[in-house]
Amino acid sequence: MISSAKTPTGKAKKGQVTVREDSGSVKACFPRTHFANDKQVKLGTGIPLVAGWEATASKLQRRLQMELEEGKLATQEGTFNLDKYREILEEYGLRAKLRLVKSATSSNDQLPPKPELSVMEVWNMYCEYRKHGLRESHYESTYQGIFKNFLESAIEATKSEDALKIRNWLIENRNQKHVKELLSNLSKAYQRLMRNKLLTHNPYEGLTDEITNKGARGKLQNEVENDNDVLDKTKAYKWEEAQTILEFIKNNCLYWHDFTKFKFITGCRTGEAIAFMWCDIEWDKERVLIRRNYDRVTKKFYPLKNDKTYKGEETRRFPMPKDGELWNFLKSIPQDELGEVVFKSRNKKIIDRNIFGVTWRGRDRTNEGKGRVKGIIPTLIEQGKLTKYLSPYNTRHTFITHAVFDLGIDEKIVSNWCGHQIEVSNKHYQDVAIFAGRTNPEIHQQQSEIDQLKEQLKQRQKQMEEMKKLLESRER
User: Fold this and answer.
1) How much is the average pLDDT of 90-99?
2) Average pLDDT over the chain, rounded to whole?
3) Are residue 108 and residue 124 in the same domain, yes or no?
4) Which of 168, 198, 228, 353 is 20 to 30 Å apart from 67, CA to CA?
5) Which pLDDT value is given to residue 383?
């Protein structure tokens, strides 16, 4: 028995809380003298009965004793405050099936009332709360798209709203990075409603523990747009393989050729290629502008993210030397109005990246009236012309690795063109951007040019360090 003080007989003093083993579990016992109807309350604590449980019980006992003496464990009517007790357990990371053995309000055993809100009701209320603090595209695609779909699928599959069943099904069947984010947000949703006194229990607390960010075993993953590995050659096709892909598309599905080629020779993201307009071509300055993205869920155009990746820039400038490959390629496409997108689907509408994805990877299922599609990449692998499958997003990796490793273009310059993050200090970034505009993305760079840029950056950094030392010496 754990108590703050004992009598010579070993029993707790009157008015003391005890936390002890009772009938195979650890329970908290509260003195009857503190409550209006003079009945003892005994409640589960959720403390596992394993080696060392006494230490946790001792901490909990001291906290409960303090709350009891301050009158926080009694309601205004003088009955036991079960809600406050739950809050204390949650603070200690404990979750117990609270059952009043001898209730201050009733002589009958009672279980706490079940939440009156369904999981989807809780989620929808939370989404409404978060809506105005998130980018519209992220809110629609992730919170109302991925997360909501995951939840609905889990509830349907398990035929239950039990948190543990939903968690386990999601881990087995969905991408674990998204699952972890979803469960974390669900816990926040329940916690928020508890603060507003709409719920008394958070069944998702702690359910993200030990979840690793791995895809569901044996499941096909959607295209993951991740720039952390853009220089990983295993995530890119060789440049000769890229030409093989383009040649196959030209001969078998011509309407996808221009769109795919633009992705390969600029390294832009899929949404950026879809959103590329005729007004983004500056013929007189021999460059193209990448300045917006098309979101597949909201079906709207958005400016590029203005974050540290772009050092405050919302537009990327990609060089297009006159009569070079990109120049001649865009000249070969029948021009349209300035506000029209350059690349359109076969029916002259905005490109649907899902349809492009099916064309790229194929589709084996024949459900919902949709027939089997062989797919560009699986066909080339079957013909022995490719050795691996990479998603459409990896056209970006292919351009970047080709520019850096095959053409010898400095990674800082390629980063400026493609918008992936790289450690470049702010004081050097402007110099890199200027040099990037003069660099031809289609030819092998002379080593002297790269050395010249590196030397310029080195000298500038040296000057800044000398200036810093001079200022410090003056301050002394």
Assistant:
1) 72
2) 80
3) no
4) 198
5) 94
Separation of alpha carbons 291 and 301, rounded Å: 10
Contacts of residue 65, Cβ cutoff 8 Å, sequence gap at least 6: 4, 16, 17
Q: Is the dihedral of CA 227, 231, 237, 240 positive or negative?
A: positive
Beta-ladder partners of 281: 288
In a domain, 201, yes or no: no
**Cβ neighbours for 183, distance < 8 A, ≥ 6 positions apart:** 167, 170, 204, 207, 208, 211
Residues 107 and 140 in one domain: no
Where does the pLDDT of residue 193 fall: very low under 50, low under 70, confident under 90, or very high at 90 and above? confident
Range of the domain at 342: 233-450
Q: What is the average per-residue pLDDT within 285-296?
A: 91
Q: Are residues 33 and 159 in the same domain?
A: no
Cβ–Cβ under 8 Å, residues 436 and 319: yes
For the stretch 202-255, pLDDT in tens is: 889 888 876 765 443 333 333 445 566 677 888 899 999 999 999 999 999 898
Query: Do 147 and 86 share a structural domain?
Result: no
Instruction: Show Cβ contacts of residue 211 under 8 Å, excluding neighbours closer than 6 positions.
Output: 171, 176, 179, 180, 183
Do 55 and 190 belong to one domain?
Answer: no
Helix (H, G, I), strand (E, B) or coil at 122: helix
Per the structure, how many domains does the chain have? 3
